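Help! Submission page says 'invalid entity' but I think these are all valid:
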Amino acid sequence: MTNNKISQQEVRRVMLIPGMVRGIVFKTDFEYVKNELGENKTDLLRKKLNDWENPIDYQTIKPLQWYPIGLRVLSLLAIEEAFGWGDKEIFDLGSSSPKYSFPATMLMKYFISIETAVKEASRLWQKHYSVGELVPAKVDEKQKQLILHLKNFRIDPVLCVSLKGYFFCIAHYVIRSKKITIQETKCMFKGGPYHEYLIEWE
Amino acid sequence: MSKQNLKEIQEKLKRTEEDLGDLQCYISEFSAALPIAVCSLSGIGVIIYVNKAFESLTDYKVIDIVGKPIGNIFLEKKKIDNLLENTFQKRSIGSDDLILLDRNKKQISTNVSFSVRQDTKGNFIGYFVSITDIEESVELREKLEEKVDERTKELEKAKEALIHMLAEAETARQEMEEEKNRTMSIIYNFTDGLLFFDKRKRFSLINPKARYFLGIKEERRMIGKTVLELPSLRLLHKLINENRKVSREEVYIRKDLVLEVTIVLIFTEKNITGYLVILHDITREKLIEKMKTEFVSLAAHQLRTPLSAIKWTIKIFLEGDLGKINKEQKEFLEGAYDSNEKMITLVNDLLNTTKIEAGKYVYKPILVNIKDMVEEAIILCKEKAEKRNITIEMNRPKQKLKKINIDVERMKIVFANLFNNAINYTPPGGKIIVSLNQTKKEITFSIKDNGIGIPVNQYKRVFTKFFRATNAIRKETEGTGLGLYIAKNIVEAHKGKIWFESRENTGTTFYITLPINTK
């Protein structure tokens, strides 16, 4: 959780992070906030982004267009600051993303089974992010374990939490289990060579 | 790649992105506008997308329900699994009526259709599910079913009632059948012959005994025919046409068979429903009666001669032809003479009766003046009347009476019987009035007394054999009870009529009418 206030300098730094992301991620952020807090609270978010001189017009964002990845980071950081949210809320936001995501429904062919989803994970990633590489490191249906490696993706810690939620949600699409857990076992911001997500189920 | 080419590619990409955006927008709007709840499922049946109608039907928000198995929102989870499996296997649309559990666990009747989602290469990638709220139609159907159930129950009840009624009717029918069989059994085994005719006098039934009596071998062709149409039943013509409640007649069928034929009108309330003919074999009774009559006749004949001898012997003594007798002897002889006279009367009556019954009572009518006969009868009984202090008056006819054909000796018996009865049963000081009247066709004789009269309940038996009224027996212990029987037979042999009017303790009037027939 990022409790410190984001400075203008930090904002500028973030905006300079290379890489692009699909517009849908902004849409899903906004939908989640609107549903959780009500539409009137979204003004706080707009205000925060305005304060950072990087306003985002969530309504006009086009889901399939590419936007700077830094702007996505700012969107998440602004949500944290505007509403005082921490890792849990950002995880929930991330896990709700596929639910509001039109592209996610279009990409259903990747969610037929664990095997398919793992096989197509890399392509799936590339449809959302222009940087980083998602690699399935281990798929063991007997041990009921799946390990994903996200390589070359040192963007911002807030994305680590959000993506954990996202993967958690996707796991539910392909794993038939009432109890699924996810942990980030390695993190590039904690000295890891890549991000490692361990998904387990019963 | 040249700068120009790169620019063109970028331009194409931009246009493609715009097209995709427009498509996404169109699909979102279309999906939101759909009135039917629609969702898409992953390959394992997890909800990955829901439209607005789905949210509104289930009360679930996207955030709550996406990622959950579709089975979570239905009551019948097993059916969902089957539908998923069948739809996947058959690659077709599968549907079923299922109970949806909304967010508040409220149960909603729905029709759920599953269809398979495929990618451009035809690979299975999940399911589309459409959910239609059929609560209203289910309610309507349930109401209709309730109505149908209700109606069915009513019909069941009606059916049961009908079955019950039919059972009762069947029982009643069986009872009636048994009753009928019993009745038929009685009829068929009855010792008397029985025949039934309907109200139009058409033959309907005969029992074996009647068949035997009448010599009928087969009655099937007789059914429905009238008595007149059936020669074998000719003997019934007269009786059945009398239309009396009960008609009776003795009929000689053949030498060895005498039947008493009784015809009874059968009524239901006040309507005649038919005629019952009873044929009772009285051959044996007739034979016994004949033997009895013959015996009485023989006995009477054998008695009359000695009685006559006694009569004349006593008379000789009384008239002093054999010497003078004293007063005491005379009294004894007079008593014996009276008793002998009574005995002679009885024997004569018995002989007359047996002759009548045997049909041997020969009549020799001659033309006579009945007035003379009546006056003679008065003279003959005058002494007896005077002894009892009874006066006899005669109302002589105003016109001259015509002579009529009468067997004088027989008619004398009639007058003697009537005068004797009048004198015997009239108290001393009483009066007897005799009258004669003539009309164009007949002459009526009447004899009126002011005696003891005849009890009403014995009227019917007055002219039967050996009948004596109870009050007559009390007053006069002697008397044969044959006088009126003989009188009736004699009068009727003259084609006349005899009858009476009486009131107990007031008096009796006997009437005789005789036809004026000079030939």
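Support: the input was valid. A stray whitespace character was the problem, and the output above is from the cleaned input. The longest helix of chain B spans residues 135-189.
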